[in-house]
Write a structure and sequence with these properties.
By secondary structure, this protein is mainly alpha-helical. The protein has helices at residues 2-29, 56-66. The protein has one domain (2-32, 41-69).
């Protein structure tokens, strides 16, 4: 009986402490846990350079010259 009580007490104690810390962490630093539409975060894309009717070679050179990774 003592072994069964120890197993239940250890499981309950560990589970209760994990639950307590999860609640405290959720209250203190749960940032960005929302899903929203893109329109809430931006008003649109702003282009610095606009060119029309490019040939294939111009498209490739434009991409190499102006596309950068963030």
């Amino acid at each position: 009986m003592d072994i069964l009580a120890f197993i239940i007490a250890a499981g309950l104690g560990f589970g209760l402490s994990c639950f307590l810390f999860a609640v405290l962490l959720t209250r203190s630093n749960d940032i960005g846990n929302n899903v929203g539409e893109a329109s809430r975060y931006t008003v649109g894309i702003e282009y610095d350079i606009i060119t029309n009717n490019l040939s294939d070679a111009e498209v490739k050179s434009f991409g190499r010259g102006y596309i950068t990774e963030a």
